[in-house]
Design a protein that fits this description.
It is built from 13 helices and 22 strands. Strand 18 and strand 19 form a beta hairpin. With 439 residues, the chain is an alpha/beta fold. Strands 2-1-3-4-5-6 form a six-stranded parallel beta sheet, sandwiched between helices. Bound molecules: iron/sulfur cluster.
């Protein structure tokens, strides 16, 4: 039995896809092993969004060869789609597969026999138009379920449409079936993932379903306690979705909504499909219906043309907005996108300084959000990681709670009252013996 090991770079989508490729290998009689267990085959799933994708890929190949010098090394993922030739020249790489080929890896490579030169199987991205269903099984508590892939938007900083192709989705029936399978395995929480998740519903280039319809159907799936929406564009986060989540027992009061900039001028340069007023309105609607809802925000700083005044506009906008945490990214150039050609570049020093300012703001926001929840009661789903005798769990609204490790609590939900923040900034709680409530 040949042994195969995996390494994933990048986002939740990549993790769910690596898991699926892993299951395909297992169904074909391969044994899935750890990276260090001298596998016969390595599959490295790459990302094009992370900085130094090339450097990281080389490093992992080198590490892999240290553990298994004769292993067959396969590279898949966004970076493989964008730069197949460069990757094929990395010493030790045996095969590179693009977006349309990665799920056929076992059929394409069949014998996994090493050749003199690396083989490339990467069709143009226009051919990546099939949707492959994927979900991860990282731990017993939570699964990332891919419902949508690709993106039809053309944000001027983003390379993802080139690496993943047009927007396409699974059908609602299939997603519901996958959720049922996941529930049978004992997993309690599903995170719905996609490149542009809110754009769910396009099949063969035509819109046949909507994300809201998907949410309503998933809400009926027995056995899954919690659904989270990994990220949704503000222009696609409609009132009907917010209202539905507010009254649902299964969809958690937690949204992650990319803002990218709080300056309308910069939003336009970025080719985003909304202005800051719409974003503020989304946040206000959420908070009106769910005062304890957690709202996470993605922001890019140092985009070409962003002056100090524009940045301060973003800073002040976020400072006043009732959001819970920020994911901050200093702008970084991506080949074949429009932004690198734009005038008035921001120096790296300023990009990093602005990012640091927003990261400090994020810490303040998070602490403030946690403090707002002290004294309130929530349900905590405990996970199975143990560190220094402590375990962690999450409330419905994504407050991380610590507790003394108790094996009985793993993958169980407990009703608690949040009591205080400990010196490490983690929430402590006391159990309340009431029926599970919905917040
Ligand atoms: S919405 Fe914009 S940033 Fe997001 S994947 Fe599509 S093009 Fe990229």
């Amino acid at each position: 039995m040949k042994k195969v090991a995996f390494y994933t770079l990048g986002c939740k989508l990549n993790y769910s896809e690596t898991s699926t490729i892993g299951r395909i290998f297992q169904e074909r009689g391969f044994e899935k092993v750890e990276f260090t267990d001298s596998p016969d085959i390595y599959v490295i799933n790459t990302c094009s969004v992370t900085d130094n994708a090339d450097k990281k890929c080389r490093k992992i190949v080198k590490e892999a060869l240290k553990h298994s010098p004769n292993a067959f090394i396969t590279i898949v993922g966004c970076y493989a789609q964008l730069k197949p030739k460069e990757i094929s020249e990395i010493p030790g790489v045996d095969a590179v597969l693009g977006a349309a080929e990665k799920f056929q890896l076992v059929d394409i490579l069949e014998t996994f026999e090493k050749k003199d030169k690396a083989e490339i199987y990467a069709s143009p991205i226009s051919e990546a138009n099939t949707f492959y269903n994927s979900y991860s099984f990282g731990d017993r508590t939570r699964t990332f379920l891919k419902v949508q892939d690709g993106c039809d938007y053309s944000c001027s900083f983003c390379t993802i449409p080139l690496a993943r192709g047009n927007s396409r989705s699974d059908s609602i029936d299939n997603v519901v079936r996958s959720a049922g399978e996941i529930a049978e395995s004992g997993v309690k929480e599903i995170v719905l993932t996609g490149v542009n998740t809110g754009d769910f519903g396009i099949q063969d280039g035509k819109r046949v379903e909507t994300f809201f319809e998907l949410v309503k159907e998933l809400d009926k799936v027995e056995g899954i306690d919690r659904f989270r929406i990994s990220s949704i564009e503000p222009n696609l986060l409609k009132d009907e979705i917010i209202s539905f989540v507010a009254q649902s027992n299964r969809f958690m009061p937690h949204f992650h909504v990319p803002l990218q900039s709080g300056s309308n001028k910069v939003l336009k340069l970025m080719r985003r499909r909304y202005q800051r007023e719409l974003y503020a309105d989304r946040v206000a609607t959420i908070k009106q219906l769910m005062p304890h809802c957690c709202i996470g925000v993605d922001v890019i700083v140092g985009f070409p043309g962003e002056t100090e005044e524009d940045f301060l506009e973003t800073y002040n906008f976020l400072n006043e907005l009732d959001v819970s945490y920020l994911h901050v990214f200093p702008y970084s150039e991506r080949e074949n996108t429009l932004a690198p050609e734009m005038p008035d570049k921001v120096t790296n020093k300023d990009r990093n300084r602005r990012a640091d300012m927003l990261r400090i703001l994020s810490e303040k926001k998070k602490r403030n959000f946690y403090e707002q929840n002290i004294g309130h009661e929530f349900n905590v789903l405990f996970e199975d990681d143990v560190k220094d005798g402590l375990m962690e769990g999450w409330t419905e609204n994504y407050v991380r709670v610590v507790a003394k490790y108790d094996p009985v609590l793993v993958n169980e939900t407990r009703h608690v009252r949040l009591t205080q923040l400990n010196p490490a900034g983690l929430m402590e709680a006391e159990e309340t013996y009431q029926e599970l409530l919905k917040h």
